[in-house]
Amino acid sequence: MSNLLFKNLSKVYENGYKAVTDFNLEIKDNEFIVFVGPSGCGKSTTLRMIAGLEDITEGEISIDGKVINDISPKDRDIAMVFQNYALYPHMTVYNNMAYALKNDKIDKEEIKKKITNAAKLLQIEEYLDRKPKQLSGGQKQRVALGRALVRNPKVFLMDEPLSNLDAKLRGQMRTEINKLHKSLNTTFIYVTHDQTEAMTLGDRIVIMKDGFIQQVDTPYNLYHKPVNTFVAGFIGSPQINFLDISLINKNNKIYGILDDKEFSLGNPNLAKYKEVKMAIRPEEIHFTPFEESIPLNVKINIIENLGDHQIIYVLLGDREIIITDYKKTLLKQNDYIDIYINKKNLLFFDKESTCNVDNIN
Ligand code: ADP
């Protein structure tokens, strides 16, 4: 149970590379925070600075009000779980889990109690006498979690812990990590490049790009109120559609123009723009008319059937628009049809700064 505060944290590697710049964040007690972003954006570097595996170039990190910059890693009360499990191959599962506790001179009976409890929670009781090579990837990852768990850390750090597992197991372990967090009174910080993992695990998500925080928010807000085009495009699968439109003002009403089609737009924050990037999620476009929608005539290009829904790629001139269709409308490739874009859930971005026009005003 701990809160963390990051103040103007920066990391410059010895070769001069700026991996993290001016990182500011407060993490609350017991919060599940996910750092997400494309490879190389500085997620692991930030996590490693918390663990003490990497020096802090500028700024500070505090845990429960105490600055930890100069505290040695082993005294930070933090446990870290890595992607490659990092288990000792020559030791049994039991001894892998007991290792740090023995080093801390904890009583043998106490160690046994802790390991038994953790093994029960993670369902690895029957593997305690095995060596890591006798375990599957999923079992190894459970042991790695168990080894962290027995230390009763103030903060749990996880660096892509599921990326070595196959898709099905990854889904199962994701749910288990969620349950584990709910059953422990511990702050979790989890690094991933996978937006689904981020959205399903995080109470709040920190989206990073090129060493800079882009947005810190709940999964709901990241999806519905992204601050810029990067966040809008990073979260959501299939990706959000971006369409460049021009704007005109007639009698104090704003109209958008797309492909010679004119449609009224209610967002007052658009008044000062002549052009913007309009964005719409694939599930906000339909094949039947409804009020407050923009009709567009498009050509059906590709139909992907996924069982409970289909993903349709259509062409508006040479622009591609992606539609997620849960009604599984009967459609034929190369046909021209009308689609209807939901006006209520449109997003607009400044073309120069890439920022959401609703955040600029
Ligand atoms: P992520 O975890 O988001 O994939 P990292 O934090 O591992 O990214 O790395 C951020 C950036 O810092 C990357 O461009 C990486 O190449 C660079 N980097 C990482 N470690 C070092 C190092 N020891 N020396 C120089 N550059 C490094």
Q: Strand fraction band?
A: 25-35%
Q: What is the radius of gyration computed over CA atoms, rounded to a whole number of angstroms?
A: 25 Å
Q: Write down how many β-strands occur, each being a DSSP E stretch of 2 or more residues.
A: 20
Silhouette:
elongated
Spatial strand sequence of the major β-sheet:
6-7-8-3-9-10
Q: Catalogue the ligands.
A: adenosine-5'-diphosphate
Order of helices and strands: EEEHEEEHHHEHEHEEHHEEEEEEEEEEH
Sheet with most strands: 6 strands, mixed
Q: Provide a count of the helices.
A: 9
Any overview of this molecule?
With 361 residues, the protein is α+β, with helices and mostly antiparallel strands. The chain is 24% helix and 35% strand. It is built from 9 helices and 20 strands. It has helices spanning 43-51, 93-103, 108-122, 137-149, 167-183, 195-201, 219-224, 229-234, 357-360; strands spanning 4-12, 18-27, 32-36, 58-63, 66-67, 78-81, 155-159, 187-192, 204-209, 212-217, 241-250, 253-258, 261-265, 275-280, 285-286, 293-305, 310-316, 319-325, 336-342, 347-349. The strands form 4 sheets. It has a 6-stranded mixed β-sheet, with helices on both faces. Strand 11 (241-250) and strand 12 (253-258) form a beta hairpin. Helix 2 (93-103) crosses helix 3, helix 2 (93-103) packs parallel to helix 4 (137-149) and helix 3 (108-122) crosses helix 4. It is elongated and about 80 Å long. The site of adenosine-5'-diphosphate has 12 residues, from helix 1.
